[in-house]
Design goal:
43% of the residues lie in helices and 23% in strands. α1 crosses α7. It contains 7 helices and 9 strands. Strands 2-7-1-8-9 form a 5-stranded parallel beta sheet, sandwiched between helices. It starts with 5 loop residues before the first strand and ends with a helix. The structure holds guanosine-5'-monophosphate (5GP). Guanosine-5'-monophosphate (5GP) binds next to β5 and β6.
Length: 191
């Protein structure tokens, strides 16, 4: 069986990666599977264990790093985030195209370690920084201080878009998903 692609979807906090990814997952012909990350962040209202994230303690997270269970990991605004490795490998071996929704530091680790191994990297950008701020504030889940930190981080992250294979504008989630679907279709044909 053909091994599945490893797809990185990055982009600043609040750009709408989750929304775009959920639309993409509905295109069944893309044969996508989502890699659920591990985090030390507390769940937001409506987030579910094992669906949005595996919510763990810092001790448990550090233990996972120590035991080499993570494909990549990073600290982002005071919390740890990482991708459990075994499940990703299993899904790819089953022919699934696995999508990682991760920030730029983790993405760089994957770029170094999986170059040439069916890797496709996509960076989602907002139409403007003003629009991004509106989206983060509109979420109403973070304190003012955290919003500011996330915006500062967003500016740094956007600088790194040049490292990615594709930069896609998220003007509307449906259009962004459509563009990404086309990228993945083209990629599948040439592999
Ligand atoms: P949030 O707290 O908004 O859910 O996530 C913060 C940032 O961490 C987002 O950019 C999100 O994509 C990223 N993130 C989520 N899971 C992972 C992961 O497993 N690894 C890395 N490196 N970043 C992640």
């Amino acid at each position: 069986m053909k091994r599945g692609l490893l797809i990185i979807l990055s982009g600043p906090s609040g750009v709408g990666k989750g929304t775009v990814r959920k639309i993409l997952m509905q295109y069944l012909f893309l044969n996508l599977a989502y890699s659920i990350s591990m985090t030390t962040r507390k769940p937001r209202a409506g987030e579910e264990e094992g669906v949005d994230y595996f919510f763990v303690s810092k001790e448990k997270f550090l233990e996972a790093i120590h035991n080499h269970l993570l494909l990549e990991h990073a600290k982002f605004v005071n919390n740890y985030y990482g991708t459990p490795k075994e499940y990703v490998e299993y899904l790819r071996d089953q022919g699934k195209n696995v999508i990682l929704e991760i920030e730029t530091r983790g993405a760089r680790q994957v770029m170094e370690n999986y170059k040439g191994d069916g890797l496709v990297t996509i960076f989602l950008v907002p139409p403007s920084l003003e629009e991004l701020e509106k989206r983060i504030r509109g979420r109403r889940t973070e304190s003012d201080e955290i919003v500011k930190e996330r915006l500062e981080k967003a500016k740094q992250e956007i600088e790194l878009k040049k490292l990615y294979d594709f930069v896609v504008m998220n003007d509307t989630p449906n259009q962004a998903a459509e563009r990404i679907a086309q990228i993945l279709k083209d990629k599948e044909q040439c592999i």
